[in-house]
Amino acid sequence: MKRFAAAIALVAIGAPARAEDAAESPKGDDGLLHQLASDVRAQLDAAGRAHAPKPPVPIAVKWKPLRIDTLDLGAPVAALVAGDLDHDGKSELYAVTAREVIALVLAGGRAKELGRVTFDGEPAVPASRDLVGAAVIDGDAVLASVSTYAHGTRASWQGKTLVGARGEAGFALCAGEHEALAAGRNYFGDAKTGFYGVRCRRDLIDPAGRPLHVRAVLELTGKLDVAVESCAAEPCVTSHFEYPNVGFAFEIADVDHDGKPELIYSAANAPGDTDVVKVVTIGGDEKRPLFKRKFDGEGIAGIAVIAVDGGEEILVVSRQFGSSRLNLWRLD
After folding, report:
1. CA 167-173-174 angle, 5° bins
2. Mean pLDDT on 312-323
3. At the N or C end, where does the chain have fewer CB atoms within 10 A?
4. Rounded Cα gap, residues 88 and 90, in angstroms
């Protein structure tokens, strides 16, 4: 805007005015200024349109669970996350186990391993009574943490090789957020105000195309508190939604790309009980889920959301009781 103002000022003072010019064309300067102002207004309007919110275009979702593959990764899975970190146009799936970060890609109807890196450094002392893991995409890297090691690892690609570097102590739960497990426990914080896990999405938009920030925290009671910050108007407004009996595996997505995020979660069942996965619209009727499926004889080890064709697909890893083998499912 300052450049346009300066241009108008230069036209006004750039050359000395002559009396005969003013006499012959009293409206000449006004016409030029008017044209410049019109040009400025047109460019500002064009810039405003270019930055105007773009509403999402919904896509049809067919819920058809399909087992993609059966895997043995050599250790229990503690966390999953997906992202296109090697910039080949296809998202990879990253599995955090008790010992490693393993990169997989879905190709030809199967899961193909691309590489793996081990956690580095000293073991966690005292160790958690249960396996706990976390994985967060941070730019071109995965920040992975697991309760068996004191430090996390930063996994990234150098060419076609997955490499790891020692990360910070504690757990990366969301971008820029680190927490430490309670000593020897499977939760963060203390026994009164602690929590089991956190998921964050800051890349979503509402039906009008304006930013949505979603944060879900699993409390020690098994209740999941979901905070949705909407910036459709100033100031931004945060709404809270609660879901009872949620298991350790949960994730946030906008599967149908309609600007109304979904919550995907497992049940808070005891080990050995048949697990269930539900998909509900956040803020909608929990008793009318978009999708629900029992996994007979299996527990849910992790849930990830992978970007595909303008929408998002849900990947679930289930584990048969008493077996080290994992089943990889696609739900939509």
Report:
1. 100
2. 84
3. N
4. 6
pTM for this entry: 0.82
Sign of CA pseudo-dihedral 225, 253, 255, 64: negative
Q: What is the DSSP track for 58-74?
A: --------EEEEEE--S
pLDDT band at 19 (very low <50, low <70, confident <90, very high): very low
**Based on C-alpha coordinates, what's the Rg of the chain?**
27
> If you write DSSP's letter for every residue of 185-220 in order, what string do you get?
SSSBS-TTT-EEEEEEEEEEE-TTS-EEEEEEEEET
Q: Whose CA is closest to 285, among 263, 304, 257, 315? A: 263
Name residue 305's amino acid.
Answer: V
Tell me whether residue 105 is exposed, middle or buried, using C-beta atoms within 10 angstroms of its C-beta: 0 to 12, 13 to 18, 19 or more: middle
Say if residue 211 is preceded by a cis peptide, omega within 30 of 0. no
CA 213 – CA 206 distance, rounded (Å)? 10
Residues paired with 115 in a beta bridge: 103
H or E element in which residue 40 lies: helix 28-50
Which residue do the tokens 């930055």 mark? 51
pLDDT at residue 51, rounded to an integer? 61
Place of tokens 């810039």: 47
> Whole-angstrom Cα distance, residue 292 to residue 276?
7
pLDDT at 38: 67
User: 104 and 113 in contact (C-beta within 8 Å)?
Assistant: yes
Quick check: 223 pLDDT over 90?
yes
Q: How far apart, in Å, do the first and last CA atoms of the chain sit? A: 48
For residue 54, which amino acid is it?
K
- The answer to whether residues 290 and 63 touch, using CB atoms and an 8 Å cutoff, is yes
Q: In this model, does residue 90 exceed pLDDT 80?
A: yes
Are 313 and 330 spatial neighbours (Cβ–Cβ below 8 Å)?
A: yes
User: Average model confidence (pLDDT) for the chain?
Assistant: 86
